[in-house]
Amino acid sequence: MIRNEGTVDRVLRVVVGLVLLSLVFVGPQTAWGWIGVVPLVTGLFGHCPLYRVFGFSTCPMKSSN
Fold it and tell me: Hey, where are the domains in the chain?
């Protein structure tokens, strides 16, 4: 699995995922908070399947010296 998310993208995904998951336990306690698993997992692995489908990447290119 090739990484296609940059550092900032990954950090934002993890934070958003944790915030959404917190909605399951505090706040409105709605099941919609479980959608936070998606950004959390993609942020932890550094790979977004939708980015791959659309040929998009926020990961900086590595230079070969």
Answer: 1-30+46-59
Q: Which tokens belong to 41?
A: 């997992």
* Predicted confidence (pLDDT) per residue in 7-51, tens digit: 999 999 999 999 999 999 898 888 889 999 999 999 999 999 999
Helices (H), 1-65: 7-25, 37-45, 49-54
The structure tokens 């944790």 sit at 18
If DSSP states are collapsed to H, E and C, what string results for 15-28? HHHHHHHHHHHCCC
Specify the pTM: 0.84
Residue recorded with tokens 């934070």 = 15
